Amino acid sequence: MDLAGEILWPETGSEQPAKIDDVDASRAQEYLLLATLLSHPPDEPMLARISSLSGDTTSLGLAHLALAQAASNASAERIAREYFALFIGVGRGELLPYGSYYLTGFLNERPLARLREDLRAYGVERAEGQTEPEDHAATLCEIMAGMVSYQFPVTDRMQQQFFEKHLGPWIGRFFADLERAEAAEFYRHLGALGRLFMETEAEAFTLLA
Q1: CATH 3.40.50.300 fits 22-208, yes or no
Q2: pLDDT over 70 for what percent of the chain?
Q3: DSSP, res 127
Q4: Buried-exposed string 47-68: b where 16+ CB fall within 10 A, e elsewhere
Q5: Please, which residues bridge with residue 136 across strands?
Q6: Domain-by-domain residue ranges, the chain?
Q7: What is this structure's pTM?
Q8: Residue 48 vs residues 6, 53, 67, 72, 74: alpha-carbon distances, Å
């Protein structure tokens, strides 16, 4: 699955780092696909690119194919309404994709403070103009993509520690909730993809221990 530059870096014009193997490139692509679709609804060109996703007979491969089919059958306008209902809403959306909420039941709690402490230690700075708390699922996926692609000066062990501390305890539950959310149609398939990918990541990190 070669999506870099086609789906995952289309808006910033960034290029995939040169010193990265195929496995880490695929992982970075996956994280950035999740980050992109969780941060904002896709436009028509983005949907066209997603509809070209390929897959295989593995669970993750089939999830890619299902997301591609959903993109082929949807319009950007309909997905924008779905995104609003899921994540914004009138007052609040159906889901709150924040680590603090999933771990404590409240926003902006201690998990966010611990995340900010670790990000400062890693030298990762909040992007200018970013209004969402750093424990938003999209932001965490984007950070993981930066770590996996070595855009941040971290080791594999530091990646593992960050994932197990800040994503592992809750993000799988979030994607499972997205998969069965009442308002989710297109995003139901993203939920399935995210859940399966996070399970794969957790298993892979376990092997590094």
Answers
A1: no
A2: 90
A3: P
A4: bebbeebebeeeebeebbebbb
A5: 98
A6: 22-208
A7: 0.90
A8: 10, 9, 12, 7, 10
